[in-house]
Specification:
Elements (H helix, E strand, L loop, with lengths): L9 H22 L5 H5 L3 H23 L5 H25 L5 H27 L2
Helix pairs in contact: 1-3, 1-5, 4-5
Amino acid sequence: MTRLPAPLSPLLRRIVLADAAFEFVAALLFSGLIGRAHFWLNVAQGITVTGAGAFALLGAGLAGAAIYRGTTENFVRVLAFANVASGAAIWIAALARWSQFEPEGQWLVAFVADGCLALGALQWLALRRGV
């Protein structure tokens, strides 16, 4: 008999929902609705708008995963790895161009990269503790 994976704990669901909220905030910041992210990062506006769309889609997907009862701990494990890998990749890429960013862009990049790292660490910690 095949054993089905256990559903996510309420805490893990809230962490995935917090991840979705973070993605929506990042989408809002990159969209240009609050400030001029493209100017802050010294890139074309299309790049930040595309990034905003990607963050919004990811946020919607994660909100759905947080609500869906079939979401498993393995999904959260992959999500945690993706968050940590993304945060590290953002920092590596940003450090190569750090001096080209306006101070607001530096804050934006740090917020997104550190947010990814923090969420990934929180997800791994919750998984490890079995909560």
